[in-house]
């Protein structure tokens, strides 16, 4: 049972950090090897791996067609994408929903940081319809992300793609 309490504490802590209004400047960090100040760029929510919000890669990518080395041309383009922002798959989603219901129905006195979760609405009001689907609202809407990626790909590489969808 102690492991369940530890897991619950970790989940609530992660949610509190992710949803906290605290900005990155409040974190005390050591400057990087180059001496630059990381406080304005670092945020804990960017370091949760698979549960972090999506953000575009910013280093080591070709950002403009002019970045292609002289004498080289693009003659073929492949797009690989796992998925855009989505709700959790069914099993993790069910576990989150069970935890949510336990918090809603507890008789225990919870610390305020956890008690907030017991008063909140579950983020997927229709889990049977939403789990395993792209998110459709908010700043990280998966449907919007997928649409933008497709539009960018098609306009940037016009004439280099095969319309396999048959539209």
Automatic annotation (TrEMBL):
Entry annotated with the keyword Membrane: no
One family name in Pfam for this protein: His_Phos_2
Alphabetical keyword list: Signal
First and last residue of the signal peptide: 1-16
Protein name as annotated: 3-phytase B
Organism per entry: Pseudocercospora fuligena
Taxonomic lineage of the native organism: Eukaryota, Fungi, Dikarya, Ascomycota, Pezizomycotina
């Amino acid at each position: 049972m102690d492991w369940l309490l530890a897991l619950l504490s970790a989940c609530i802590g992660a949610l509190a950090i992710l949803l906290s209004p605290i900005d990155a400047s409040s974190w005390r960090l050591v400057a990087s090897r180059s001496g630059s100040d990381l406080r304005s760029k670092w945020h804990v929510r960017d370091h949760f791996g698979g549960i972090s919000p999506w953000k575009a890669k910013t280093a080591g990518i070709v950002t403009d067609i002019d970045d292609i080395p002289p004498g080289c041309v693009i003659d073929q383009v492949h797009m690989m994408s796992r998925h855009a922002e989505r709700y959790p798959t069914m099993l993790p989603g069910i576990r989150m929903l069970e935890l949510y219901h336990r918090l809603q129905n507890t008789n225990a006195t919870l610390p305020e940081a956890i008690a907030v979760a017991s008063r909140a609405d579950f983020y997927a009001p229709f889990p049977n319809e939403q789990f395993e689907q792209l998110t459709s609202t908010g700043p990280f809407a998966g449907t919007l992300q997928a649409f933008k990626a497709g539009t960018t790909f098609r306009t940037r590489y016009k004439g280099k793609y095969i319309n396999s969808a048959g539209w």
